[in-house]
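Dear all,

This email documents one entry for the complex benchmark we are building for the journal club exercise. For each entry we list the sequence lines for every component of the assembly. Then comes the predicted three-dimensional structure of the complex as a token string, followed by one or two observations. Please use this as the template for your own entries, and keep the labels exactly as they appear.
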Amino acid sequence: MSSSPIQRLAVPELDPVERLRILAAGLPHVALRERVYPVAFDHLWGFIGDLEASAPIMELGIRRTEVLRRDGERLELAAFGALGIRSQFDVVLRPGWCLMQNRLGDIGMAAAPEGSGTRFAHFEGSRWLGRLARPLFARKIAGDLERIRVALSG
Amino acid sequence: MSVDRAPQDAARLDRVRAAQSGDLLAMGELLDELAGYVASLCAPVALDDAPDAAQETLMLVFRDLKTLREPAALRAWVRRIALREAVRHAQRRRREPAFELPDLPQPGDAELDRDVRAVLASLSAEQRAILVLRDLEGYSESDAAIELEVAKGTAKSRLHRARAAFAERWSR
């Protein structure tokens, strides 16, 4: 193939929040919500990306989380609920991007700088309950986003 | 017919099948693979609207992924959607009064990038689409005509016009 000027054209990349919206479009059972926090990206992701610290704060039903195995971006994460009930997640984690899944459902989080703040997107849903449970998850995520706001301002 | 530069190995096809079944992590990997490819197809055709065209393309791809019968045909399917969306966005922009070139800093050689964008903006979306198939995807004129559902002569004249525009720009 001969060289063409269009091969030299700069190609804009999609940011993590735009990418998370795309995945949500392919998952009819998840609810997605977004919020812009008045903090720098590093501040926000410094909190979110430390899943052992952030998950018990974000998620009301989780008392403790533990990284069982880490291989680059891939993690196995155990979450312990109030009654000691354990659930395990396969995770992909990198700056601005976190996907978590187990046999019951899916969780996604993404962040990208916006103005002087950071846009954060979060989806969650249950494969078992399906799309009917989306309004419940939308309400739950609103609570998660508010708990993040409180944690960031603390 | 098409030139598929991605290796069609078993692992890759397994990943497409896993993504089709709703495996979130496989979907994430597939998105990582396709995002740059779709952006590179949309950029020369949709120009300023390329990010919107790329995002809408990928939303359609992931929404309809389960309907793709043959995982090996993924890239050809994605390419078709991307060019259709890029042309649609470009045509919508053409109907609007002013077409301003972006005044944003670009990575790499900014002057060259500006020149390429200026030439592309002088072409129609259809001419840009055939340029993408020919120069980025390595299609023959005949295959590009089939992909875009136009006569071979039409594809040939669009390509000639596009190439002439670049040649004129760089001969000044």
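Observations: Residues 97-106 of chain B have pLDDT under 50 and may be disordered. Helices of chain B lie at 10-20, 24-46, 50-63, 74-95, 110-122, 125-136, 141-148, 152-171.
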